[in-house]
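In response to the reviewer comment on reproducibility (Comment 2.3), we provide here a single inverse folding case reported in full, input and output, so that an independent group could reproduce the run without further information from us. The structure tokens appear first.
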């Protein structure tokens, strides 16, 4: 989860393995989200119907044997950038095709871009910060 604060970013890492209470607990199951459900979730988000999108996103994986109450985040990454004037032209976007989250803003140093994505296949989480040409 990327919160998107330009100068004080918080990235919360999660993993379905964090939902397992212990080795003796019954196995919990997660199905793949169907392409039809994923398309509905995307369309609901695009039309601003976030409540229905959230409900379907929570139900679509058919999470069983453990309940939602046992879920918790793994750990956080905190990125702090010293201020230099007012933050302007802020935007945060998520490309639902790639999962890449992009945060853009401008301050007295120039234009900043921070991108984040996760590759389950490669088991990595990536943060790319592009600073303005007039600053570090």
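Designed residues, in position order:
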């Amino acid at each position: 989860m990327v919160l998107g604060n330009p100068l004080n970013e918080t990235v919360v890492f999660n993993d379905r393995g964090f939902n397992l209470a212990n080795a003796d607990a019954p196995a919990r199951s997660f199905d793949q989200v169907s392409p039809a459900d994923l398309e509905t979730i995307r369309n609901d988000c695009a039309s601003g119907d976030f409540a229905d999108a959230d409900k379907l996103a929570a139900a679509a994986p058919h999470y069983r044997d453990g309940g939602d109450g046992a879920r918790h985040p793994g750990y956080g990454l905190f990125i702090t950038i010293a201020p230099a004037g007012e933050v302007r032209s802020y935007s945060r976007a998520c490309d639902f095709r790639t999962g890449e989250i992009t945060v853009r803003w401008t301050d007295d140093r120039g234009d900043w871009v921070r991108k984040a994505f996760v590759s389950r296949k490669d088991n990595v989480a990536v943060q790319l910060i592009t600073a303005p040409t007039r600053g570090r």
